[in-house]
């Protein structure tokens, strides 16, 4: 039974949504103790059930080690629970004001020198750094969903991120068998800047009646090698998360291709958010945590 690198880490994840739980499952599945914080007790209840299920599923498909004792999970409703962490991952909604508020709160309770990792799909790290007392400790990540399956992690170095913070996060990612790819700060970084306008364009093709959802995905899979198809990918991301990211990109770049199309906006208004709600561009068996 092995837990070499993981033994030195104690991780707090802020936000018990789909992404936060996925990151928590990745860490716990590698033997790292995790504190999961959310103001919504109902979300924490769902997470306590979902997390061990995700770990077991990931172990069955070989995405997490089977010989590792899962790290303990502690939940809480206040950022004070992060005290004693060796690193904090903020994974709340894609809203700069809310992220800034939470990052400022957690910076006040963690030990000096603790890396603050904001998991964001589009918000520039430089913008969030203004909220924390030591901007050198702030760094961005963009985990893909599910985090315990996809090995590459986009790591975003802000203009003031310290070398020691980059090294610490690289060490944490190594302990959970992820491969960091460090990029410079910009709206949407690399993955979202390329992917999200394409997903928006795919939805617009359906909105205009050029092709069905299934036809769009089949053509992108069979002709262009897209693994799952753009609209099934949008469902996995969460259509509300996609719209939030597109709005950030549009606000920062003015690129008309980043303005969410009416079909996406309508689905979000109707609560059809993708896999997590049981219905998006496709229908699924039921909502997930």
UniProtKB/TrEMBL annotation:
Q: Name one Pfam family in it.
A: 3HCDH
Q: Where is the 3-hydroxyacyl-CoA dehydrogenase C-terminal domain?
A: 188-284
What InterPro entries does the record tag this protein with? 3-OHacyl-CoA_DH (IPR022694), 3-OHacyl-CoA_DH_NAD-bd (IPR006176), 3HC_DH_C (IPR006108), 6-PGluconate_DH-like_C_sf (IPR008927), 6PGD_dom2 (IPR013328), NAD(P)-bd_dom_sf (IPR036291)
- Report any one BP term from Gene Ontology: fatty acid metabolic process
Instruction: Please verify whether the record's keywords include Electron transport.
Output: no
| Key words, A-Z | NAD, Oxidoreductase
Q: In this UniProt entry, which residues are annotated as the site Important for catalytic activity?
A: 142
Pathway field of the UniProt record reads: Lipid metabolism; butanoate metabolism
Write out the residues that bind NAD(+). Answer: 15-20, 38, 94, 99, 121, 145, 276
Extract the GO molecular function terms from the UniProt entry: NAD+ binding; oxidoreductase activity, acting on the CH-OH group of donors, NAD or NADP as acceptor
Record's family?
Answer: Belongs to the 3-hydroxyacyl-CoA dehydrogenase family.
State the name under which the record lists this protein.
3-hydroxybutyryl-CoA dehydrogenase
């Amino acid at each position: 039974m092995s837990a070499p690198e993981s033994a030195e880490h104690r991780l707090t994840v802020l936000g018990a949504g789909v992404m936060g739980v996925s990151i928590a499952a990745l860490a716990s599945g590698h033997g790292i103790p995790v504190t999961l914080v959310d103001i919504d007790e109902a979300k924490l209840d769902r997470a306590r059930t979902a997390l061990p299920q995700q770990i077991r599923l990931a172990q069955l498909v070989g995405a997490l080690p089977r010989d590792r004792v899962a790290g303990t999970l502690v939940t809480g409703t206040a950022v004070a629970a992060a005290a004693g962490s060796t690193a904090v991952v903020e994974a709340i909604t894609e809203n700069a004001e809310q992220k800034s508020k939470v990052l400022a709160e957690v910076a006040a309770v963690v030990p000096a020198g603790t890396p603050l990792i904001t998991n964001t799909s589009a918000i520039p790290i430089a913008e969030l750094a203004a909220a924390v007392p030591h901007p050198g400790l702030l760094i961005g990540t963009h985990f893909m969903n599910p985090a315990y399956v996809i090995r590459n992690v986009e790591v975003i170095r802000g203009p003031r991120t310290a070398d020691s913070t980059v090294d610490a996060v690289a060490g944490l990612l190594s302990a959970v068998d992820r491969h960091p790819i460090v990029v410079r700060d910009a709206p949407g970084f690399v993955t979202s800047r390329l992917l999200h306008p394409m997903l928006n364009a795919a939805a617009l093709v359906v909105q205009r009646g050029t092709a069905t959802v299934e036809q769009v995905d089949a053509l992108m899979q069979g002709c262009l090698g897209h693994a799952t198809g753009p609209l099934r990918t949008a469902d996995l991301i969460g259509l509300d998360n996609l719209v939030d990211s597109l709005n950030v990109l549009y606000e920062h770049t003015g690129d008309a291709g980043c303005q969410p199309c009416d079909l996406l906006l309508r689905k979000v208004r109707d609560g059809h958010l993708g896999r997590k709600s049981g219905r998006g561009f496709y229908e699924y068996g039921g909502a997930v945590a």
